[in-house]
Amino acid sequence: MKEQENLRIDPSIFWPAIILLAAIITPLMLYPDAGKIVVNMLLGWVTSTLGWLYLLAGIGSFFIMMWLAFGPFGHIRLGDKEDQPEFGKVTWVVMLFCAGIGISICYWAFVEPLYFLNSPPMGIEANSPDAVEWAAMYPMFHWGVVPWALYLIPALPIAYALYVRKVNVLRMSEACRGLLGDRVDGLIGKLIDVIVMFSIIGGVGTSLGLSVPLVSKLVQVMFGVQDSFLLQMGILAIWTAMIAWSVFNGLRKGIKTLSNVNAVLGVIMLFFVLLVGPTVFLLKLWTNSFGMLVNNFFHISFWTDPIQDRHFPENWTVFYWAWWVAYAPMMGLFVARISRGRTIRELILNGVVWGSVGCWAFFAIWGGYALDIQIRGVVDLQSILTTQGTPATIVAILKTMPLWEWVLPIFTLLCFVFLATTVDSSAYMLAAICTKELTGYQEPARWNRILWTLMVAAVGVALLLVGGLEAAQISTVLVALPMIPILVLMVISFIRWIHADFAEHVRPKALVCSNYKHRHPTAEKTAPVSANTNHTVPTNHHKEFDNTIASIAE
Description:
By secondary structure, this protein is an all-alpha fold. Helices cover 75% and strands 0% of the residues. The chain is globular and about 75 Å long. The relative contact order is 0.18.
């Protein structure tokens, strides 16, 4: 009974979030056409006016993570000296990856290179050999080190607050206390948490809005049924039930189990496509793409195309950076919760490296396979993509594989589990934010987790009604905008905390050796000085001097 009392909701966060969310979702469901016009206008203004801000947020996050990982604070442990990691290394990395990527990689890995092949960046001729290389490289940028750095920006301050400063709430506002002080207990703190909840819901709702049409198409092909809104709602209901089971059972049983199943299915599909596809071509293309990414990383990180203004950065990179920013609160809270006992360096390097490598593997194999089909003329995937959309294109790609009748259901199951691992993590974190008191060793109340699962599903329905991919992109860019200043606040707060707590361990700006005393210049000409004494050594005692140096070296 006492445990349940400690897990009661905070009404000052819970009810404003519920009411505001309902106020936004209801008009979108009742007036989808008008809603689409409004959000389109907002998207045009944000991307054209503030696209540069998203780009700077992305590359800035990367620089900050590298400084923290390799700087003087990298060895700080997120916990007490005796705190051991709650999850094994492999399980921890898998949970981190599955929560951060979800079904999005199933949706984009096959088709994003095809989009770039037809509309390449930098003014490159469409469908040319150069376009193929850039089409294979650019997804590695969009799903590489910058996105994972953005994910970890909030994770470190939250983990530090939980396991070093020992706070008893799992909220991003608490991670701003190092800068805002007691103001996080008032209106400013509540506003931060409500914005965070909207960012999480918008990002995850985007995944739902993209995923349901894809799985609906897969079900149509497998069972020969017609597409309908009722079919999509049935798929969403099954998804919601799976996610509800996971969040009901918590981190160790529900989310951990789904993440491990997800990893096994993903590895099976990757190796299958690698083996049945053009293996050597895929490996050569990935190697080439990695080299191109290294050569062009800083150029494309800052590229806004200000002169020709062909809108490639706004349509793609700005959208992706906004998506990662929108997901960052959920990932920050989730990664912080599962990272007790890790060091700052360990968290950053494992997150950035393994997260990026995992994404690159999907794009190198699945994306490279799709490019090979297109350039060899096996199937005109670009025509299908233009006339029938992404879900039909993915089905067409899968049908070119041997045993495709078996591949389709496995891929469909992978989609189900992939999205479930993302949404259950999001529902878990939404429940944690609006819980009044919650330590890093507790879990939110079960009814609270289930409620937020249903609310996220409602957002998915609203986005489906307003219009699929375009509506998902718009919602992501818009909800991510207010998160950028919050991330800046968190970084400053975190740096102030670690400077206050570990000031004596930080290297001074200049190192000065005081072991030696000043000598007269003439003494240096007549005799060398012993390294461990202040007296001179006679010049004819070379052997004694050499022995002294040898003893110091030992």
